[in-house]
Amino acid sequence: MALIGARILVAFAIPPLVFAHEAHPANPPAALSAEERAFLEENESAMAKMMNDMAAKPTGDVDRDFVAMMNPHHQGAIDMAVIELRYGKNEQLRRIAQEIIVDQMQEIAAMKLAIGEPATDTTPAPTQPPSGPVASVHHHPGMQMDMSAGMKK
């Protein structure tokens, strides 16, 4: 009986969360600066990618399914932290964003190892410039940081 009540509660709680996410304006107001508009667009894109990637098909293995859903969630946090570093000016928030990147990368690696997958892949760390053509027109010299100093071995 409690399980049915919990399912009903979840069923009613989820739609407002979905609609709240959809309430974000797809096109920010024109009164915003170009930088703020770019920040909002990049953040919205990161959120949409995260939500899409978290919709993993069940495999029948609860642990693998958990990792399949959590990795995009953690990657979304990394992506949003990188966006904060690109546009944010508050030094305390920038330090927090750096910590988020390190912590979330470590958690992704730990989850992969826990299910027998390699901890790393061949993609560059989010603070490294991509090796191919850059899709974004935003380039901020000096924004690349060596995050390895904060990594636990």
UniProtKB/TrEMBL annotation:
Q: Where is the DUF305 domain?
A: 43-112
Task: Spell out the Gene3D superfamilies in the cross-references.
Answer: 1.20.1260.10
Keyword Zinc, does the record have it?
no
Residue span of region Disordered: 118-153
Keyword Signal assigned to the entry: answer is yes
InterPro entries per record: DUF305_CopM-like, Ferritin-like
Which keywords has UniProt assigned to this entry?
Signal
The stretch of residues making up the signal peptide is 1-20
Per its record, how is this protein called by name?
DUF305 domain-containing protein
Q: What is the lineage of its organism?
A: Bacteria, Pseudomonadati, Pseudomonadota, Alphaproteobacteria, Hyphomicrobiales
